[in-house]
Each structure stands twice: as structure tokens, then as C-alpha cells.
Amino acid sequence: MSTFQAPTGTRDVVAPESARFAAVVGRFAERARLAGFGLVVSPMFEDVAVFRRTAGEESDVVKDEMYEFDDKGGRRLALRPEGTASVVRAFVQHRPPVPWKAWYVTPAFRYERPQAGRYRQHHQVGVELLGTPDPAADVECIGLLAGFLHACGIHRFELKVNSMGDANCMPGYKATLVDYLSAHEGELCEEHRARWRRNPLRVLDCKKPACATVRERAPRLSGALCDPCRHHFDAVLSGLDALGLAWRQDDTLVRGFDYYTRTTFELGSLALDAAQNALGGGGRYDGLAEQLGGPATPGVGFGCGIERVLLAAAAEGALSEVTGRVDAFVIDLSGGAGALELTSRLRAAGISADRAFDGRSLKAQLKAADRSGARLACIVGPDELAAGTVTVRVLTGQQAGQQETIDREALVGRGKELLAVAGRPAGGTP
Ligand code: HAM
Fold this sequence. Notes:
This protein is α+β, with helices and mostly antiparallel strands. It has 16 helices and 16 strands. It has two domains: 17-169 and 225-315, BirA Bifunctional Protein, domain 2; 328-421, Anticodon-binding domain (Rossmann fold, 3-Layer(aba) Sandwich), CATH 3.40.50.800.
């Protein structure tokens, strides 16, 4: 055993799983690009106030889970626990024209109790769309998330939606909730019995059975929406219908951050355990830019956990075709010149290719080719090198063992034909 291990709650993502990780990011990048979102890359740490002010002092993330530290200059910083605050901080700092459509891929750090699907460093892909209150923007985000999951081969999920109201109707709802909770204080879980007054909405989000029971009879958020919020929410729901996305309204979906206004949503996998089944979630945060000192700017977005996507994909048998295996393996018995030329030729044509090093024997190189999972072996010895030919051997599938010697110029064309028969597209990882 090595002396050092990855810290508790973190893990190394290595091949072949990392090929699926990369494919998930690639598919998200493509969907985001197709919808007009541009990549934003911002620092992994921020002034701790950025997160305190946005997520809220009473959120679990800020209260218990943030990785905070002082740097050598005495600045109080925190590793980002989520992506939204940094993106909105960047928006306020740079003031790009609106609507501003940003997507990101980022690690996120939360000091949580580690378990399957819950890590202290997880990774998210997400989008933020700033500058419009239009419910069509909410629908665009939700549609993007659902479309991305389908693109990953994940189809068994449920979409929950809710509206949190706004500064007009939310205070009234909170007051009603406070009255209700005062009468039921003793029935709350231990933590919320002590803390519920500081942010009563957190009780709606609490996973403990005691709070769940109290919640069942609590006044409903949906009944408290003002007309503009109700119309906004109805428009979101109609948009989802128009997209053909099934949804379920969940009054208790207040989510874990204080910044949400109006729409909230979550896509939960039906193939994973309930405790860790949220694949992605988000919502509207119309006051957030102002909270960070910017102009009043509505916004909406979501984050989606890559680890959860990989778990759901595995549970649904999806992404199994993404192996990271190369298409071809060059076996060189000519002293190295053949491998150099052929791998370059194949790679330039979009056929992934690997090779052995250290001038090993034919047997050792064949073994390496097998281990690589390559479908084709391209063998070049001194005779082939002199004659300008290469021997191509099929390593896997029904034609395994079939072998032909061809002109080196024909390698790319013939290689593609043989790979097409095998059903694996040239390039390996889609
Ligand atoms: P969130 O729901 O806290 O939202 O996280 C988004 C997703 O990240 C979750 O649905 C889940 O898949 C994944 N995730 C969260 N925590 C962990 C963990 N400890 N281990 C593994 N996966 C995890 C946000 O972060 C908001 N910023 C989303 C948003 C964007 N709202 C508006 N814009």
C-alpha cells in the first residue's frame, strides 16, 4: 500500500472511467455550444464573502461544509462549494452584454459525510443565463439539462419543479410558515428545533424524518404565490409541456441555497438510491447579482454532478461503449521507424493508435496490443518497412485472427473499413 492516499471523500478518476468522465464533459460542452452558451473559467477559490452572501449563512454548505482558509496575505478565502456564485461574481465584475449565457465544468468542494455518490470534491457541469426574467430562459435551461442526460444515454429520471415566489410574496409565506412552525417546534429534528427561526425554509429541505412529518402538514408554497409569480410558473410549466418534458410539482423543493427566487428544479435518477439520486438541479436567482454589488439582473441556471451522471449511466447500462480503448495498435519490429510513421499516419486520419516502446519482442508487443483493447494490430517488420507495406491483423470480434498485408498508403482506408465492421467509430471515444 502506498503511504499516501487520496484524502477522505475524494477519489482519483482513472482510465477507463475517466474516458466516460471526459465523454460526459464533451457531450455537455456540445449541448451548451449548440444552445449558444460560452465557456467561463473562473478561480477555484474566492473571497469567502462571495459564498456567504450568496448561498446564505444558514445553508448547510456555508455553515458546515466550506473549505475556508487564510492565504499568506491574510485574505479569508474558500474553495468553491458550487459554481453559481463565482459565475455571477464574474458577471458583476465584467458586465458583459445580456443575456449572458455561460457554461462551466468545475470541481466543487464540500465537507460532507462521504458515501456513494457524495464526495468532498465532486465535479459539476452547469450553465448560468443572466439578464432575462423570461420563463423561456428557465425552460431552455431545464431542456438543456434533460437533453444532455438523454445524450448520455440516461432516460430514467424524474423532473421536479417548484416556484419559490419572489420578494413580493415570499415574506408573507415565510410569516405563515413561522406561525405554523412555532406551533410544531417540539416535533422538529434536533438541529432545526434549535435553528429553524434563522431560516424556516430549511425545514422544508430537511431530510430527517421528524422534519418530514412536520412538513407534510405545513402551509404550501404554491398557495402563497403572487399573480406575477404564478403566471411565471405557469409559463414555465407550459414551456416544459411544449418540450414534451414530463414534470412533477414538488412544493418542498426549496433547494439548499438562499439565492433562489421563483423557479427551482431538480432531475432525479430513478435508477439510483433516493439519498443520492439528484443528477442536477438549479433555478432562478433574480436578486443574486445585486447581492454581489452588481446591477439588478435576473438569472437562472443549474449544476449537474458528473459523478452522479456516471453512476446513473452505469445503472442504466449507458456509456458502456465509451472505453477509451484505441482503435489500432502498431507492432514494430523494424526498430521504431515504422511505429513512428504509422501512428502519425493513423492519428492524423482520426484513427486512435498506440504503440509499444523499448523495442520489445513480437510476443510482448502482441500482448500489449491485446491488453490495449485495440481492434486492429498493424505489424511492421524490416520486410514490410522495405516494401512499403504493413500487415493488418484483426484482434477482436468475429473476424479476429484475419490478417492481410497491404500497401502502407492503403492503411487508413482499409483500417476504417475494418473498424466500421467492428462498430466502433474511428477515434475510439465518442
Ligand atoms: P446543487 O444541487 O448543490 O446545486 O449541486 C448540483 C449537483 O451537483 C447535484 O444535483 C448533484 O448531482 C451534484 N452534487 C452536489 N453535491 C455533491 C456531492 N457532495 N458529491 C457528489 N455530487 C454532488 C448547485 O450547486 C447550484 N450551484 C446549481 C445552480 C446553478 N443553481 C442555479 N444555477
